[in-house]
Design a protein that fits this description.
- The chain is an alpha/beta fold.
- It folds into two domains: about 350 residues, Alpha-Beta Barrel (TIM Barrel); about 100 residues, CBS-domain, CATH 3.10.580.
- It contains 20 helices and 20 strands.
- The strands form five sheets. The chain has an eight-stranded parallel beta barrel with strand order 3-4-11-12-13-14-15-16, surrounded by six helices. Strands 1-20-2 form a three-stranded mixed sheet, with no helix packed on it.
- A hairpin with a 5-residue loop joins β17 and β18.
- The longest helix is centred in the last third of the chain and has 19 residues.
- The two termini are about 35 Å apart.
- The structure holds NADPH dihydro-nicotinamide-adenine-dinucleotide phosphate, ligand LQESDW3C and potassium ion (K).
- Potassium ion binds next to loops.
- It is an enzyme of class 1 (oxidoreductase).
- One of its GO terms (molecular function) is IMP dehydrogenase activity.
- One of its GO terms (biological process) is purine ribonucleoside salvage.
Amino acid sequence: MRFLDGQQPTTDLTYGDVFMVPSRSDVTSRFDVDLSSDDGTGTTIPVVVANMTAVAGRRMSETVARRGGIAIIPQDIPVDVVADVVADVKSKDPVIETAVVVAPSDTVSTVLTLLGKRAHGAAVVVADGKPVGVVTESDCAAVDRFAQVHQVMSEDLVALDAAQLEADGLEATFEQMHAAKIHLAPVVRDGLLAGVLTRKGVVRSSVYRPALDAAGRLRVGAAVGINGDVAAKTRELLDAGVDVLVVDTAHGHQGKMLQALEAVRSVDPQVPVVAGNVVTAAGVRDLVAAGADILKVGVGPGAMCTTRMQTAVGRPQFSAVLECAAAARELGKHVWADGGVRHPRDVALALAAGASQVMVGSWFAGTYESPGDLHDDGTGRLYKDSFGMASARAVAARTAGAGSAFGRARKALYEEGISTGKMYLDPLRPGVEDLLDEITSGLRSSCTYAGARTLGEFHDRALVGVQSAAGYAEGMPVATSW
Ligand SMILES: NC(=O)C1=CN([C@@H]2O[C@H](COP(=O)(O)OP(=O)(O)OC[C@H]3O[C@@H](n4cnc5c(N)ncnc54)[C@H](OP(=O)(O)O)[C@@H]3O)[C@@H](O)[C@H]2O)C=CC1
Ligand SMILES: Nc1nc2c(ncn2[C@@H]2O[C@H](COP(=O)(O)O)[C@@H](O)[C@H]2O)c(=O)[nH]1
Ligand SMILES: [K+]
């Protein structure tokens, strides 16, 4: 990456401070851009779901890995639950999606609760393992909440056969669904429900490649903190089958982190290890020396994060990523830009600055696939609760039952995150895949503007300028007259 006209910025910058100019390009289609990362984590799009309890759970992990990204299960989740999540994600099909399933005797009230768990807009009604109907939100409108599913479901089913699907391919399957005027179809294998396909999902499967491990199963990562028996927890996580290990604490450039990395490396010298958070080249070098392959960069940019207000510590994220990525590159290592990503442009800028991937937390909390329950704010707008991992809420959960009550009370004094975030679902993009579409289409387009076919070329070719607040504002759409 170069600054425009050889500028050398004299202050640290964040995403809003910078813009990219187009360069001569011979990349004729945005579909010609390869978004795979080269940092050894096996992702085919450079998007990692942040290890936050309100964001990364099993549905999020499965959905994002099917489209080529990876989610990191937070360190606060008990290790036996992590093992269960990893096994579940790895049991899922890379193309056929997991259905929301109900029984004919379930109530409409149950259906309405479950529909919000995935973006399909329909639940498959199953009896003896076979699909017998489909039920949507509109089927449930204006009927009693205790009505039973069999009374309202549509029995007019067009089911797809998994073997036939493989033989026909995605395009023919899409055309078949189009001709049948259906947006969703249950998929059966030997007559039993194997999942669902949506028309949108079929198109996505033709554009994205799933992030798969050596055995062809979806990838998933998990985080470990720096306290306690790090080696033992690492062993348990690796036995559970996690593909990437994230060693995570607020202040990554500290002695306990270096010891934690040594403990992790003593267990497994091979697994990709991500460590952070840091924002300086010195932090990068020390953590690499202790065994990290990838540095998690970002102190204070997160949407749920109050660290900069509490402590004055942190660094504007674009400059942090630029300096850390350059230091990591010299050592043959990589960085993930963690936090503060709110628009596709931020993803492009982080990658231009040299990050191999971008971590997204709060933005994805506001989707069907995040772990929380859907709420209506009283005006019909849907949202989910979110909270920081250093908030009072997370600290109380993390320390519950550990140590003495006195110790927990002392810990509770330190709070560097908000407990009561409200992340609205975008009515046009309520599912995480809708956001991935928005991010990756923006990023593919950024790459062609820079004349880049790969993310490596994008970083090499990106030409970045510094802008005023008015320059940033000019880029915003204006939907009403002024
Ligand atoms: N990216 C960011 O800007 C930030 C991210 N977070 C996230 O919050 C989660 C919890 O992290 P964390 O609070 O580190 O909890 P951890 O459970 O990982 O514990 C942190 C350990 O480091 C010690 N420590 C020393 N200095 C600090 C410091 N300045 N801040 C925090 N701990 C310190 C603590 O001891 P003692 O308690 O005795 O001081 C404790 O033993 C993580 O997921 C982290 O990524 C949190 C803050 C900032
Ligand atoms: N200082 C704090 N940082 C936090 C907290 N919880 C999470 N985080 C960091 O934010 C990113 C995600 O950023 P986002 O803008 O996409 O939400 C996450 O990976 C952590 O590094 C917190 O309580 N305090
Ligand atoms: K912040």
